[in-house]
Amino acid sequence: MVVVLGIFFGLAYNHAYYPHRLIEYLEAASVGFFCGLLIGSLEEFKLREILTRIAFLQALIVRTILYSIIISLILTAVLSIEISMEMEISYIETFTIYLTGPDFQRDLVFSLLMVSAILFIVQIIQLFGLSNFTRLIIGTYHRPKEVSRIFLFVDLKDSTSIAEKLNNEKYSNFIKDYFYYISDAITLYGGEVYQYVGDEIVVTWPAKANDSRSIMCFFEMKKIIYQNQNYFEKKYGLIPDFKAGLHYGKVIVTEVGKIKKEIVYHGDVINTASRIEGKCNELDQTLLASSPVIEFIAPQNDFQVLKKGNIYLKGKSDELALFGVMPISSSLY
Hints:
It is built from twelve helices and eight strands. By secondary structure, the chain is α+β, with helices and mostly antiparallel strands.
C-alpha cells in the first residue's frame, strides 16, 4: 500500500513541477516506487514497533517530518544527477546547490503536504481495514447481501486471573501488545479483523474450498507469540496463551450506523463459532473446528484432525460434530 502511494506521490510531483511527458512520468513513478519501498521497509522493520508505543498525534508528527525529509533528500539526490549532467559540473557541487536552494524548500513543503495526506489516508484505511474501507467507499454492502464466510474466534486464556495479577493499565498494555503481535499472522494469511471484543479477536475470510489459511493463521499466531515470549515474560511476567473456534456458513453482511459506519455480519454462524470456542477448555483443545468447516476447507497433511464427538452447544437444538486441529510438524506451532 505504501509503495502504491509512493508511486502516486511521484506522479503528482511530476505533474506539479515538470513537463507532462510520458518519460517524465515514468521517471517520477520510479522515484516514487523507491521512496515507497524505502519508507515501507522502515515502517515494517524499524519504526512501526517504536512508534506504536507513543501517542497517535506524536507518531503522526514524527512520521510526517521524517518521511518528508527522506523523500526530499531522495529527490535532491536524483535531480542533482540530471542537473550535474546537463550543466557539466560535479555532482557534489550540484547536490550542495540544490540542497541550499529554493527547489529543496519547495520539495520539502510539497512532501510535507503530500505525506500528511497519505498518512491520513493510511490511518483511515487501518481504522476500517483495507477490504472494508474499499467496500464502504464503493457501497458494496449498502444493501444486505448473503455471503459465505469463515470465522475464527480467538480468545485469551485465563484472562480473569491475568487481569488480577496486572493493574488496569498494565493489563490494557498486555492486551494491546498481544493483539499487535498476532496481527502479523492475520495479514500474512489474508484474514480480515472483524471485531475486537475485550480480549477476544474475531477474524474472517471469504469462503473458499480447500483453503486452510484460517488454520495456518491460528498456528502462525502461536508461533509469533512463542518467538516473542521473552518480551512478554520480561515486561509482564507471563506469556499470552489463547484458544479458538472455527466455523463456516452463510451470513448476511451489510452497512450499519449513522454516526460511525461499520460493515457487520448477522447470522447463526457467528454465534456458533463463538460457542465452539467456548468448548475448547472442556475438550482440552487449543483449536476446535466444526464438521462443516473441516469438510469445506479440507486441511492438508500438515494437520492432524481428530473428532472430539457430537456436542450440544448452548442455544442450539441439534448436536454438532467438533474436531480438534493440531499441526503435525512442530515448525508450524
